[in-house]
Amino acid sequence: MWRDLAPVGRSASSGGYFRQPWASAETELRSWFAEACAARGLTVETDGIGNQVAWWSPDAASDAPGVLTGSHLDSVLDGGAYDGPLGVVSALAAVDRLRDRGFEPSRPLGIGVFVEEEGSRFGRACLGSRLVAGATTWDAARELRDRDGVFLADAVEAAGLDPSAGLLSLDRVGTFVELHVEQGRDLVDRDVAVGLASEIWPHGRWRFDFAGQANHAGSTRMEDRRDPMLTYAMTALAANKQARLAGQRATFGRIAVEPNGTNAVPSLVTAWLDARASSDDALAELVAAIERQADDRAGRDGTSLTVTAESVSGSVAFDPDLATRLAGLGDWPVIPTQAGHDAGILSDAGVPTAMVFVRNPTGVSHSPDEHAETADCLAGVEALADVLAELAGA
């Protein structure tokens, strides 16, 4: 399965992946998933925006609350191979292992794939699961635009999908388990291949619009400029300092400049802040400190600042009893994660949720260098099979 996925959406120059939602590579992956599930005799459902779930349903318990596993198949721009697809491939492999063991579920066992988890095209992380969970509405989401100005509704329809067909329902889901490559070095430091999640740090994305005055780069004296690039540059440095002092995370990873000319002072710099912290209060304090320093600098530069919260996710504490129960199956450590996941959205929606992490030897993620050793991936499959057998067994 991993060999089948390896070339899809991969850049020949960087080796990274461009699997953007509702574009050709992601559409190919959705077709691959449907074929892989059909080959296993699983019943595949696809909703109006491309979310998919395939069920292994025992006849005697088809109405019982189901156990859902899976992840996502989209990537960040120039991303790694493992973030998302590892959870989908491992779920399929875990079903194969359970059948090898002669296991028969006593309740429905599903494998799900949520669209636009990364938020790399339309700026809303976990958008597919948010819509399914009711955390946002289609009427609000349909008006989102990508970098090329394409509306989300138009992108979905261009991919051959019909939003009016409705969304997947969580009514059938009694428990959700997501396997994911670890995005950090906790398991490396512990020298173990597999762990479980205790919580997700609160995190969000804020758009900072720094407005100034366009002017000539040669004829405009430095003291006469209203340069928003200077305000942005100081803000990026301030974000780094504030996050370091607080032991939190702050990143400006994307900017857009107008008019974007080499010989022109910009009129507008738009920058997106990704901020994460160990608590909701700490996150609010971090973003407020960054915004305060940006405002002060804007006053000195003769520029203006508008800050817009585009998506904010509060802290998620996974079901501690469930984590303790599952950790006992393999004596796995229970660790926090600073990355957002569909599992967090379903947990907030009231679904008992757990996560299985597979060791990442370098801790690098959202990069072509993202990696997991085959032996650790196989250990993750065995762990996931054990977890699913525990949850979907008699």
Automatic annotation (TrEMBL):
Give the required cofactors: Zn(2+)
Sites where the protein binds allantoate = R205, N263, R276
Q: Which family does it belong to?
A: Belongs to the peptidase M20 family.
**Keyword Hydrolase appears in the UniProt entry:** yes
PANTHER family cross-referenced by the UniProt entry = ALLANTOATE AMIDOHYDROLASE, ALLANTOATE DEIMINASE-RELATED
Q: Its domain of life?
A: Bacteria
Residue numbers binding Zn(2+) 1: H72, D83, H180
Keyword list, A-Z: Hydrolase, Metal-binding, Zinc
**Amino acids binding Zn(2+) 2:** D83, E118, H366
**Where are the bilayer-spanning segments?**
none
Identify this protein by name. Allantoate amidohydrolase
Which Pfam families has this protein been placed in?
Peptidase_M20
For the keyword Hydrolase, the answer is yes
Q: What is the species of this protein?
A: Nocardioides ganghwensis
**What are the recorded GO MF terms, alphabetically?**
hydrolase activity, acting on carbon-nitrogen (but not peptide) bonds, in linear amidines; metal ion binding
Q: How is the cofactor bound?
A: Binds 2 Zn(2+) ions per subunit.
